[in-house]
Amino acid sequence: MKYQVTHRTTFAYTQPVAISHHVLRLTPRSHPRQHCLRSTMTFDPTPSVRSDGTDYFGNPITHLTIQTPHPELIVEAKTFVDVMKPDPISLDQSPPWDQVVQQLQRPLDSPNLEAQQFMYDSPYITMDDATYDFVRECFPAGRPLLAGVMDLTSRIFQEFTYEGGVTEVSTPVQDVLTSRKGVCQDFAHLEIAALRSLGVPARYISGYLLTHPPEGQEKLVGADASHAWLAAWSPGLGWVDFDPTNNIIPGDEHITLAWGRDYGDVSPINGFMVGGGHHTLTVSVDVSPAPHPSLV
What we know:
Blueprint: E1 2-24, E2 34-44, E3 49-54, E4 60-66, E5 70-83, H1 97-104, H2 113-116, H3 129-136, H4 145-159, E6 161-162, H5 173-179, E7 181-182, H6 184-198, E8 202-209, E9 226-234, E10 238-242, E11 254-260, H7 263-266, E12 269-275, E13 279-289
Parallel strand pairs: 6-7
Antiparallel strand pairs: 1-4, 1-5, 1-12, 1-13, 2-5, 3-4, 8-9, 8-11, 9-10
């Protein structure tokens, strides 16, 4: 399925910003099920310096320096991306979770080294007894690993309420577990913390989700939003995505932007500035099937 994604971010400042530096992760990464066909970014004002590359996790990044005093910064990314459905997998055919954890305890086990780095605390995700107790009932001894992950995904979907405005990016996992409320990034952080507390590698994924308007209504341009989910690692199958906000294994309507240990590794735009006073942030995202596939 080919998509056109438009992500527009506007920073409005109460005083002019003299100089600013930014790191952008607005170009969807390519992987075996996804190909970024074309991606362009426009900026107002025009940056004095721009460089493109990849970060530690292989995500495309863009560095900007703006040296012109400006009361507003507008960044618009427009991307065409092709997403394919994952091959069907049998969750019950994954190896027992406790055997996987035992295998991963070997220090610097080179075949699993890439996965092992996603087993530990990270700045936005910390483990404790509460997260371990929460996940443990989904993983009795000998249960296939991915079957347990799907059970945990369903439990978060059923027991937690999606509610915006009650958390922030920095809200601890433990607070989300107590309040049973949050948004997609909270649920992803919680599930990752729970899996890591068992010793299962899990990574955070940011991206977009194609949304469908109510029957009989037109889709509002710009009404979509960024989305977040996670992937768990299983020997032989590699990384498998799970979306606790929607209780599904993501298919061809989930568009991957970047992945890392937690939200801090994949923030779409961050940086620092000199001046500016207070600022307001407005984000508009539109995801739609590519109107002219032959042009991408």
